Structures are given as C-alpha cells and as structure tokens.
Amino acid sequence: MPELPEVAALADFLRTRTSGRTVAGVEVGSIAALKTFDPPTDALTGGAVTDVARHGKWLDVVVSAPAGPVPDGAPLHLVFHLSRGGWVRWSDALSTTPVRPSLGGSGRGAVLALRVRLDDGSGFDLTEAGTRKRLAVHVVRDPTEIGMIASLGVEPLSPEFTTDVLADLLSAKNQQVKGLLRDQHAIAGIGNAYSDEILHAGRFSPYKLTRSFTPKETARLHAAIGDVLTEAITAASGKPAKELKDAKRAGMRVHGRTGLPCPGWDGTPCGDVVHEVSFADRSMQYCPTCQTGGKPLADRRMSKLLR
C-alpha cells in the first residue's frame, strides 16, 4: 500500500503534469470504486486542474469546475485512496479506446477503475490489482465531506507534530506502539511498512506499550518518525509513478526483508537477521537484536506449522 512518502511523490508527479491542463473527460471503469454520485464525474469535464494535494494517504486532484452542478468557479475535488492494490498509471498519449464500465471484477488481474483525459491527449488511469478491491474514488466539493479525511490525525511532518503532541498520543490509550503509528485517526499517512522502519530506527519493539514510553524514548521515537519519512520522501522525489514501488522496496531496512541480514539501526550491521510476525492479512518485520533485546517475538502462524 502506498504510504505518505509515495503518495507525496505521486502528488508532486501529477501536479507537475496536470496543473493548468483542462479535463477533457472522465471515464469510469469500475463502478464499485466510485463512492459518490453528486457531483457526477462529468462535472469535472471542462475544468482546469489547479493543484494536486495530499491528505494522509489520500490524493486530491483539484479542478476549477465550469458552470453546472456547482457555482461558477467553485472547485471540485477528485479524491482517491489507492488502498493495497491501487495505482496511478500516467500516459503522455492515452488510448483513445473508450473505457467499458464494469462492476469491478474479483480476479487478481489489474482492473481499470477510472480514466482521466486531459486536453493535450495525456492523462492517467487508476488501476487496481488483487482479489480484494478497495480502491475508493470520490468527487466532492470539499475533501472533508469524506469521513475518513475529516477524521485524519496530525500530519507527522507538519510543525504541529511536536514531541509533546506525540507524548499526548502515546498516553491517550495503552496500546502497542505499532498500532498507534498505523492509526490514521492519530497520525496520518504511516502504514505497515513505514511503521516497521520507524520502530527499527528508534530501536523499539512493535509490541512496546505506549504508556511505557519515557520522555527520552518519546523524543527518540519522534526523531525516528521524522528521519525515516523525510529520507523516504527525498528518495521518492522526482521519480515517475512507475518507479515509486521499486524505490520504496529498495529503501526498506527491515520491512519485506525477512531472513536477510539486518543493516543495523545506525547503518552498522548488528549480526542478526530480520524476523517476521505474520497475521491474517499482513506481516511485520523487525530485528531482535536492535529492537527486542535479542528475543524473537512469537509468530502464531509459524508455531502452528511447527506443531
């Protein structure tokens, strides 16, 4: 799933290519992906793209709409969440073949959910692969009309995200710290992959309880959040959309690297290998030496296989 660094890079990528261009048409490929009906997608046609913004893991294409279902000059927002299997595919010359609407499909192959055509023949497709189709597309007058955006927590790279704010979040509820980092209502934009990376950089067990953090540990976690996300944004910046997935994988120190040598939280190999804990629909990776005092965490799935 794209997280804050990749979504920020996608926003920059789309902004550079779409700003000032006029929307020539919007074609719906997956009816299931479209979550709103008023305003209709046709309301975007004829409007000029004025910006591409990010809200947590959501992308927001801002279109200055012409007369029609909204007052003249009032912007519309094409807002979408890529979820686990969604992606943005840009083309300088989109296919002229009309998109055929469907209910979305249930196979693993990529489904074309939405196509946005611009006045110069360029544009982008929103596609989704995998069996669980969760791509969400909205056309709204205000992004906060979408409940999941209205309830987003603090942006972790904003000035508002201070050590004191993090301390308040840690003390609000006694839970595992990885769960807090992934909670979009608390901190916007961090998911499974970067929470693994942050906890490794900060040298914390993913199971460490939030109310057990000392002020010094809170400051260390705050620094790790900023360092990991800033480094990832720098690595993703300027890359075309098609290269972002590979760039994300290449930058990971522990996430997705089960069984490989741990590079060490400070860049000095610790001599251990990356371990994994598996759940029903995801897994997390960590280093016992760097994060859990050398003790492997219980993995119920592996325990069952060894019985």
UniProtKB/TrEMBL annotation:
<feature type="domain" description="Formamidopyrimidine-DNA glycosylase catalytic">
    <location>
        <begin position="2"/>
        <end position="135"/>
    </location>
</feature>
<protein>
    <submittedName>
        <fullName>Formamidopyrimidine-DNA glycosylase</fullName>
        <ecNumber>3.2.2.23</ecNumber>
        <ecNumber>4.2.99.18</ecNumber>
    </submittedName>
</protein>
<keyword id="KW-0378">Hydrolase</keyword>
<dbReference type="InterPro" id="IPR010979">
    <property type="entry name" value="Ribosomal_uS13-like_H2TH"/>
</dbReference>
<comment type="similarity">
    <text>Belongs to the FPG family.</text>
</comment>
<keyword id="KW-0234">DNA repair</keyword>
<feature type="domain" description="FPG-type">
    <location>
        <begin position="253"/>
        <end position="292"/>
    </location>
</feature>
<keyword id="KW-0238">DNA-binding</keyword>
<dbReference type="Pfam" id="PF06831">
    <property type="entry name" value="H2TH"/>
</dbReference>
<dbReference type="InterPro" id="IPR035937">
    <property type="entry name" value="FPG_N"/>
</dbReference>
<keyword id="KW-0862">Zinc</keyword>
<dbReference type="InterPro" id="IPR012319">
    <property type="entry name" value="FPG_cat"/>
</dbReference>
<keyword id="KW-0456">Lyase</keyword>
<keyword id="KW-0326">Glycosidase</keyword>
<dbReference type="InterPro" id="IPR000214">
    <property type="entry name" value="Znf_DNA_glyclase/AP_lyase"/>
</dbReference>
<keyword id="KW-0511">Multifunctional enzyme</keyword>
<dbReference type="GO" id="GO:0140078">
    <property type="term" value="F:class I DNA-(apurinic or apyrimidinic site) endonuclease activity"/>
</dbReference>
<dbReference type="GO" id="GO:0008534">
    <property type="term" value="F:oxidized purine nucleobase lesion DNA N-glycosylase activity"/>
</dbReference>
<keyword id="KW-0227">DNA damage</keyword>
<keyword id="KW-0479">Metal-binding</keyword>
<dbReference type="Pfam" id="PF01149">
    <property type="entry name" value="Fapy_DNA_glyco"/>
</dbReference>
<keyword id="KW-0863">Zinc-finger</keyword>
<dbReference type="InterPro" id="IPR015886">
    <property type="entry name" value="H2TH_FPG"/>
</dbReference>
